[in-house]
Amino acid sequence: MKKNTFGLRGLTLSALAASLLAALPAWAVDPFTLRDIRVEGLQRVEPGTVFASLPFRIGDQYNDDKGSTAIRSLFGLGLFSDVRLEVSGDVLVVIVEERPTVADVSFTGIKEFDADVLKKALRDVGLTEGRPFDKALADRAEQELKRQYINRSMYAAQVVTTVTPSERNRINLNFNVIEGDVAKINEIRIVGNQAFSESTLRGLFDLDTGGWLSWYTKSDRYSRAKLNADLENLRSFYLTRGFLEFRIDSTQVAIAPGKDDMSITINITEGNRYVVSSVELEGEYLGKEAEFKTLVSLRAGEPYNVEDVSRTVKAFTDYFGAFGYAFAQVEATPEIDRVNNRVAFVLRAQPARRVYVRRINVEGNNRTRDEVIRREFRQLESAWYDSDRIRLSRDRVDRLGFFTEVGIDTQQVPGVPDQVDLTISVVEKPTGNLTLGAGYSQADKLSLVAGIKQENVFGTGNYLGLDLNTSKFNRQFVLSTTNPYFTPDGISRTLDIYYRTTTPYTEQGGDYRLVTPGASVRFGVPFTEQDTVFFGVGVEQTRIEEGTGLPLAYKDFRDKFGSNATSVPLTIGWARDGRDSALVPSEGRLQRLNTELGVAGDTRYLKASYQFQQYIPLSKQYTLAFNTELGYGKGLGGRDYPVFKNFFGGGLGSVRGFEQGTLGPDSPIIGSLTNERVNIGGNRNVVLNAEFITPFPGAGNDRTLRLFGFVDVGNVYGPGEKLSASELRASVGVGLSWISPIGPLRFAYASPIRKQPQDKIQKFQFQIGTSF
To answer: pTM for the whole thing?
Structure first.
């Protein structure tokens, strides 16, 4: 019986064709009809996988060309290290040798990374448990691991791969890593600067040569991405100060032989400083040249500023977009006079064609419903393209807080020049928050805190929250839910159910309590895109329970209105937040106005509060911040203002340096043998704060850890007391803010500079989660 054998072992696909051609004369068999096809050597691969890759079936005519195609197809599966074909009469035998599969991937010697992070990186290059293995794949895996360490500035990292055979043609892979030391920057040099000092330019960089806090900021670890960002900061610094022809000639990064030190040298050419001589408009401006001229940020006689150029071009493009011209082209052409160091700009515009939006697509929302995103859109389908509405739509989706990334892409409809499709792509983030904790303080003793919050319940965009606090002096249970689109027009509805108990802390202690159960409903009405007005109504009951340590003011209120006081408060509020960040703001403004009106029940009162914050950036590192809070309360209908609705002052969030809640009127304690008095707050409140915020020494430009100096002024006034400036308390001090893993932390050390003998001083204070 004649038997022909041909095959390929260890050949790459790139060399396959040439090898086949060279071997064809030796393999030649006469064409014949296949009576049977057998497969030998399979262990885990299903026979159907092999048969599906063959270009012939039983009963087909077989020849050498089809044999070559079969071998290429089988190798292309990536499952076999050897493939051979044997012809025995009219039977074709396919003999394969399977590649071993990866049974386990493990690491030894890793400290910088979690093993799961490295496994994911290897999965991205094709190496994971259950996948076929070859030496080339192991080499790629080693290079990927080294790349991960290089991204952490660990250039000395070494990786040794150990392959251990296992049963059933499987292997275990172990990567033994010798991490080495972190390569730290020991020098940053800028060469070619004349107008600005080298220290000034280095201050623009997030990378530095390290300080005593480098273990936290890691600013002395080299990163190509960080260096590129710093170079852009350097370029922007010059281009915004008139240096039109500034350029970065070269950047050299040198690593010491031990791979633990590195130096960076940046060569620059500053060029001359230019002044804008004139700005002219050319092209088609839709007959609205006057309107476009008002958008020009460039001013003749002022130094050249690249941001003014970019701002002008963007304003022109957006203004064209507001009229439906999505593809308008605006070009700012400089005409440079190097003799007089002056530059003239010509703004050329071509609006192209007007287009409208055919379709709006949503991508990336695996959990959030399409409706939740689409209802935030102000650009409508089948309407003219409007860049202002599109930008506003994107911002509104981003402000939902459900996504880490929000982007809008514009695609022209093929074959239809006046139509575009919009695709909004989002990357979802976890929106649930479970809090379990315990705390201990001298006043509250042991307290348990639990909370569960979901900002996007079942992808509907609704909010649901539950808070529980078991502290000795302030206990609460709060259940809250918000539907941001209670009506199709965007009116929100919030329902709150709460139960609070309070025992004001005194030195002698006491067992009386204020118990306040209640419920409320609040509606938010968007009057403009930036302003929301809140309306609400609630019902609550405040019960003064008997016990020792009761202040006289509470007894007087109970004698007039009884132990139970029922209130039906109406609430009206307004909010506008224009800060660049809620956690670490550096510019922008925040305003809040809240009013509460007791219209029924045992109490009649008005309580109003207003807050104003302004952040002024002095530079990239320094910020000046101001905060003002005013509060006012008054009894209505001839009734006294409820003492349990008082404002309190002192401590963090008010006038630092004074004990929390101790400013303002006080009241004697019934039965006190030492004539002890307790602070009960007042119906008027004034707080003024000023802060100078700076990076923490050694932290570079890291905004999560900042130092601030402050001046606080304020006080609380009771009914009948005159609002006198002489009664204001004041303090100065320094503080630290840290966006820690457990939340925003603020520490402050304050020294009162205006105080009274009866004031309670507390120089060091801290708390979690507020700005001022």
So the answer is: 0.56
